[in-house]
Amino acid sequence: MSLGQELAPHLPFLRRYARALTGSQQHGDAYVRAALEAIVAAPGDFPRDVDARLGLYRTFQRIWSSTNDDEQSDADPVSDGTEAIAQARLARITPRSRQALLLTAMEGFTPEDAAYLIEGTPDEVEALVADALAEIERQTRADVLIIEDEPIIAMDLETIVRDLGHSVNGVAVTRDEAVSQALAQRPTLVLADIQLADDSSGIDAVKDILAEFSVPVIFITAFPERLLTGERPEPTFLITKPFQRSTVKAAISQALFFDSTTVPA
User: Fold this and answer.
1) Any residues with CB less than 8 A from the CB of 214 and at least 6 apart, and which?
2) Residues 222-250 as b or e (16 or more Cβ within 10 Å = b)
3) Contact, 228 vs 12, CB < 8 A?
4) Average pLDDT value over all residues in the chain
């Protein structure tokens, strides 16, 4: 099997990580392309002492680290300044803390593997994750609209959201209901399933909502690879079903991290 064939199954999930890290599909995908170009240019430098997924993320991490300074801001050099929303928070939270959080909570790496990726120790990873969560939660509070047609999942999400200190201002099960509640309640965060009760689409519901006002959105799906191709406009924040509490927590933290309406004073 060629190196390209080994890496292909992992690319959608690297895009998910990169988008969450940068807060943008465009900028996250640009970093992924840069990592792939580096591999193509020097295949002999690709880490072969670990599995293909770890080697791919390690290559990405090196590209990211070479263009981001932990001691300064996390401004994206491939961007045109669209990450300015996050600057007030980035002064308080180091990029390594957010990387540790996303690698473990969203991407499912063990502390040992995350330590390899960020070139630290497992104890350091765990400390960085704790610091990131504490600081992000201190800075961000949201009114959340949940768009989910499965009652058990909706209740689970509602419990997680409330336990994180946020408010739930509605649970919708169809596109029309979601749009109606959003316009009436004006949530500051939306959690949206893709397939809804009346065969309508959570994506369409979100498009309708975003046509009226801006709000960060996290999509929930059992088939994330379909929305992580990098070939069209796609979600920046994505949770895979079945999800873990820590995954939802990390996604909410990152979505609010880049939301201009909750920038701290």
Assistant:
1) none
2) eebeebbebeeebbbbbbbeebeebbbbb
3) yes
4) 85
For residues 100 and 138, give the distance between their C-alpha atoms in angstroms, rounded to a whole number.
18
Strand partners of residue 171: 146
pTM: 0.67
What pLDDT, on the 0 to 100 scale, is given for residue 77?
Answer: 42
The C-alpha atoms of residue 175 and residue 198 are separated, in whole angstroms, by 8
Q: Which domains, and CATH codes, for the chain?
A: 3-137 (1.20.140.160), 141-262 (3.40.50.2300)
What pLDDT shows up at residue 253? Answer: 81
Contacts of 77 (CB under 8 A, 6+ apart): 67, 68
Peptide bond into 235 cis (omega under 30): no
Q: Which residue stretches of the chain are H helix?
A: 3-7, 11-22, 25-41, 52-66, 87-90, 95-101, 111-118, 122-139, 151-163, 175-185, 202-210, 245-257
φ/ψ of residue 82, rounded to 5: -70, -15
**230 and 89 Cβ atoms separated by less than 8 Å:** no
- Radius of gyration from C-alpha coordinates of the chain: 18
Residues with Cβ within 8 Å of 22's Cβ and at least 6 positions away in sequence, in order, are 28, 31, 76, 79, 83
Tokens in use for 77?
A: 């050099």
Mean pLDDT score, 144-158: 95
